[in-house]
Amino acid sequence: MTNTRRMRNSFARPVVLAPLTITGCTVLLFLVGSILARGFMAPSNVLMLLALSADLGIAAIGETVVILTGGIDLSIAWNVTAASIIFTGITQGNEGHLWIGVAAGLGVGALAGLANGLGIAKLNISPIVMTLGMNNIMQGLTLIYSQGTPSGSAPASIKEIATGWLGPIPIIVLVWIGLAIVVSACLHATRGGRYLYSVGESPMVSRLTGIDNDFVLIAAYTVSGFCAGLTGILFTGFSSMSFLGMGDQFVLPAIAAVVLGGASIYGGRGSYAGTFVGAFFLTVLTTVLAIVNISIGFRNIIYGLVIIAAVLLYRAYTRERE
Amino acid sequence: MGPRPSGAARQGAFGATVTFIVLFVVDFLLKGGHFSAFDLKTLCMNALPLVLVALGQFFVVLTNGIDLSLGPMMSVSGAIAALTFSTSPIGAVLLAMVAAAGGGLANAILVVRLRLPPILATLATMSIFQGVALVILPSPGGTVPAGLTAFLTNGGPALLPVPLVLLVCAALATGWTMTTRFGIWLRAVGGDEGAARSSGVAVSAVKFGAYVLAALLAGLGGLYLAIATANGSPTIGDSFILLSIAAVVLGRVAIVGGRGSPLGVVMGALTLTIIGSLLYFANLSSFYQSLINGLILVGVVGFDMIRKRFLLAVRGGRQ
Question: Which of B128, B255, B256 is facing A300, going by the closest CB pair?
């Protein structure tokens, strides 16, 4: 009796129910898609859609970590673009400069994230203001660095990672799944992960239990910047070059993926598994809308409505528990 | 909580005014000590859309909220006006304002009635308004009566150009609003919502009013932008998402807690506008604009936080 009640209690939490709901919605979308286009549910197409979701999913790792602390990162757009433009600028498509380029791209992202974390933790700047400001700073720095015209292209090995296949499976999907396992393990099985949830749930309690809140916040934003840098490099491989504004398409979907995955925007609740499914759902949704020739305008409207619907639905899950 | 702005708010407006005057003097010197009636008119014309939307953001921020949808709201109202001006100018203005009010109402329902976090609710409506603007006007276009553009950008006597008159009217109207019961309640809600509620403030109504008023001001800003540029653009408002927040922050309005004054916000908007002119006359490429906007936003908030901590430490030391 108590056992079932406990089970039901833990089962009713949005953290579990939200990813299930989104998985269900994704299956529905696949059914719709297969009516519209033959072979939409074929394994190769599912893998293709997973590959298309990977960049968004990786950018959303950072957003998940930051939202778990109760913050938000609006600087993804130009962190992604900056990393990509630095990467192609250094490598110029040259395999020999690959590692310097990768280090520079990841470094730029991580530094921007570190600055975000320092401003938010040490100067108490609100995450919205800090990361919006950082987005502009990165935009300015990127424009000055590239003088408005990004140069270079992606080295072949990055193109291979972004678009190649390992047997029947796209390499980028393996990378994404590998990262997802590592991130989930870190969130749920390490002390650092517990601290993250604890800071998000209650900064006061967290401080009283001896956690260095500032350090946790700085680490979270640094991870977010690093993930944006990684997304920038991988997306460069996908599009084989860098261009201004290439990161804009990640900001809203990354936040949406986290929210659809059942994380609370107030922090302390959520999982990367949820975000993973959320990112995949958004990509499948975009693809289905593209099949029926829905314009970008209507797509934006549907995106907004989906976010609102998800938040309202998940709150109903929370109420059920109480 | 009286009708006058609190001491902190007046101090904030003072800081913002000084910032603007310093930048204005630098700009004046860079231009070789030259400031004509034309410069005055241009400054006001360039600043007016930002002043309007920032005053809207000010109302929302006072309630401890934030509105990321105000920029795209400007695109929507501008697009509607540009598409309907040729049919009926008055109808166009009315339609744009009705759309803005509707958008504001949607935000208010999401935040106040359905209790969504403001950042999520307005992030969603930001996407929706961007979509609406693209659906009704897929690429820049539409028409604006040439006479209207000429009057609103170029009209009036040399020393009292129409853009300046509009700017002053907007500031005075907002300032007056803050002295009404609505304004006083707005500060009370932002200061301590629970205390405001228990002392009889209609908290929900006040917040509703703030979101609708904000959207209406954004709508007016978008309308002026469309008239001044003589066409509508579905993405013209996007840059105002950041700028409206930056102007409010530069006006030293506390992002948490009901303090700040409209004068500070107007000065914040003027400061951001004059930076563009400064870069031009300092021979710096426009690439520096977003860098400097970002640095100023982060720098001002960071400086205020450090100063506050320092003052606290000094007071603590005395006790």
Answer: B128
Q: Which two tokens stand for residue A2?
A: 């108590």
Those residues whose C-beta lies under 8 Å from the C-beta of residue B317, and which sit 6 or more positions away, are none
pLDDT tier at B276 (50, 70, 90 boundaries)? confident
Give the integer Cα–Cα distance in Å for A314 and A69.
19
Query: Is B67 in a helix, a strand, or coil?
Result: coil
CATH number of domain containing B23? 1.10.3470
Nearest by Cα to A158 from A247, A209, A232, A108: A232
- Whether B307 is covered by a domain: the verdict is no
Please give the DSSP secondary-structure letter assigned to residue B6. Answer: P
Backbone angles phi, psi at A170, to 5 degrees: -60, 135
Is B314 among the domain residues?
A: no
Residue B299: inside a domain: no
Structural domain for B29, as ranges: 7-289
Q: What is the predicted pLDDT for the residue at B32?
A: 82
Kindly list the residues of chain B whose beta carbon comes within 8 Å of any beta carbon in chain A: 66, 110, 114, 116-117, 119-121, 123-128, 130-135, 138, 234, 242, 245-246, 249, 255-256, 285, 287-295, 297-298, 301-302, 305-306
Structure-block tokens of residue B104: 């504001």
Q: With 80 as the cut, is the pLDDT of residue A18 above it?
A: yes
User: Percentage of chain B surpassing pLDDT 90?
Assistant: 59
DSSP assignments along B140-178, one per residue: SB----HHHHHHHHH-S-TTS-HHHHHHHHHHHHHHHHH
What's the complex ipTM?
0.89
Work out the pLDDT band at A11, boundaries 50, 70, 90: very low
DSSP tag of A266: T
Note the pLDDT tens digit of each residue in B86-122: 999 999 999 999 999 999 999 999 999 999 999 999 9
Measure CB to CB from residue A311 to each of B120, B125, B293 and give the nearest one: B120
pLDDT digits (tens, 9 = 90+) for B206-229: 999 999 999 999 999 999 999 999
Does the residue B74 lie in any domain?
yes
Interface residues of A toward B, Cβ cutoff 8 Å, are 72, 119, 123-126, 128-130, 132-141, 143-144, 147-148, 252, 255, 259, 265-266, 295-305, 307-308, 311-312
pLDDT in tens, A140-199: 999 999 998 999 899 999 999 999 999 899 999 999 999 999 999 999 999 999 999 999
A140/B290 Cβ within 8 A: yes
